[in-house]
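User: Could you go from structure to sequence for me? I need the amino acid at each position, not a summary. Structure tokens:
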């Protein structure tokens, strides 16, 4: 069942990308095509991970980990 959800999701993203990238090619926006493709791949990967209930780390935890020592230094 999850495989069908994943395939359906990929087909939806491919359909959306088809129209978006077609317009970007028409406007000769090569850099935007690369950026759009990378972002869509990341979003697709995260969404598939959510379908399979794979835990996705919260980016705020990394930021808090980095800033915690800095707050101790500043508060001295």
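Assistant: Here is the amino acid at each position, in order:
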């Amino acid at each position: 069942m999850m495989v069908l959800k994943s395939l359906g999701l990929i087909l939806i993203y491919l359909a959306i990308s088809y129209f978006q990238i077609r317009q970007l090619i028409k406007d000769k926006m090569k850099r935007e095509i690369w950026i759009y493709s990378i972002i869509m791949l990341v979003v697709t990967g995260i969404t598939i991970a959510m379908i399979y209930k794979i835990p996705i780390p919260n980016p705020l935890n990394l930021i808090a980990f980095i800033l915690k020592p800095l707050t101790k230094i500043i508060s001295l």
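One structural detail worth keeping in mind: The chain has a mean pLDDT of 92.
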